[in-house]
Inverse folding.
């Protein structure tokens, strides 16, 4: 799926003013990308004073504030923080957000957030969101305007909601370079448990066990295999504690299956046929993953003025009509 770059085709911003609450990697990249695509767009960034000092040094063209009251006047409010903080922000938005404002988030789990958002005043419209983009490091210093280029941005509108705010948010997300796709919140959390949350826990515990077995003096003998496999182990724990707590059922089920597979492998260490079968099945799924991602070009491969979806395939539970 290739579409014209928003800046190249002159698409105007679907919002007059946006407020980005939380200027870490994702929120900072939203602000940077929005400023790059729409130089005249009014943007207010809200975060702690020490973060705002770094923002002002790099992105002087936006208004900054340290108080949630500063969301007033914004017709789009983007909540960009760990899941527990998003839940807290949602409880404090009524009375601060303008009537008619659209509120979205970038949380990695959706059910708890969508449920909490259902308690918002009826004058505020919420559409959950989750950009499937990231980096090896976190914080505003790692934010960049092209972070979302060609990446899928999942949206979780509530059933039966007014489609107009969803379509408006889709235009904004597309303008940031991403490819919006609608998915049910339950399906989102189930899929992310398998595709994102389980790999994170597996990589973290693998690094812990390997490190404790090898010790500091033995790690210098590690090769690229351990380094590449455990890249996710550098993720900040404060983010993942909230993700685990709000997706414990789906993640617990995924862990049970993973533990069962490891237990089966443990019992097969001296059985070449079973080891061969286990590796063969894993290799087949790996090849399917490679085929699924083959349409994702690197930034240098993309034609100027175009973006490409990170995935044109539709996961279970996604709506065929997308956005």
């Amino acid at each position: 799926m290739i579409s014209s770059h928003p800046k190249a085709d002159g698409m105007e911003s679907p919002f007059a003013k946006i407020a980005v609450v939380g200027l870490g990697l994702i929120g900072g990249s939203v602000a940077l990308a929005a400023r790059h695509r729409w130089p005249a767009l009014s943007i207010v960034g809200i975060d702690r004073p020490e973060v705002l000092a770094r923002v002002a040094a790099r992105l002087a063209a936006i208004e900054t504030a340290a108080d949630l009251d500063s969301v007033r006047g914004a017709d789009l409010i983007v909540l960009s923080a760990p899941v527990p903080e998003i839940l807290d922000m949602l409880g404090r938005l009524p009375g601060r957000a303008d009537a008619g404002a659209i509120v979205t988030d970038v949380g990695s789990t959706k059910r708890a957030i969508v449920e909490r958002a259902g308690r918002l005043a009826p004058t505020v419209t919420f559409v959950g969101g989750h950009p499937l983009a990231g980096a090896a490091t976190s914080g505003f210093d790692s934010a960049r305007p092209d972070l979302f280029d060609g990446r899928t941005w999942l949206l979780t509108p509530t059933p039966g909601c007014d489609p107009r705010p969803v379509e408006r948010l889709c235009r904004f997300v597309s303008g940031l370079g991403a490819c919006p796709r609608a998915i049910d919140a339950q399906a989102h959390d189930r899929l992310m448990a398998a595709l994102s949350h389980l790999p994170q826990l597996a990589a973290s515990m693998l690094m812990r066990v390997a490190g404790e077995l090898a010790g500091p003096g033995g790690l210098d003998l590690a090769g690229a295999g351990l380094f590449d496999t455990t890249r996710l182990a550098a993720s900040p724990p404060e983010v993942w504690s909230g993700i685990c707590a709000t997706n414990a059922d789906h993640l617990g089920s995924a862990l049970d299956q993973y533990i069962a597979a490891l237990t089966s492998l443990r019992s097969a260490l001296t059985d070449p046929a079973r080891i061969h079968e286990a590796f063969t099945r894993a290799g087949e799924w790996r090849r399917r993953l490679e085929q699924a991602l083959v349409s994702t070009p690197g930034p240098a491969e993309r034609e100027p003025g175009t973006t490409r979806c990170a995935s044109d395939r539709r996961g279970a539970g996604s709506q065929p009509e997308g956005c």
Remarks:
- The chain has two domains: 2-183+297-308, 188-267.
- Confidence is low (pLDDT under 50) at residues 1-8, 297-322.
- Residues 185-214 form the longest helix (30 residues).
- The radius of gyration is 21 Å.
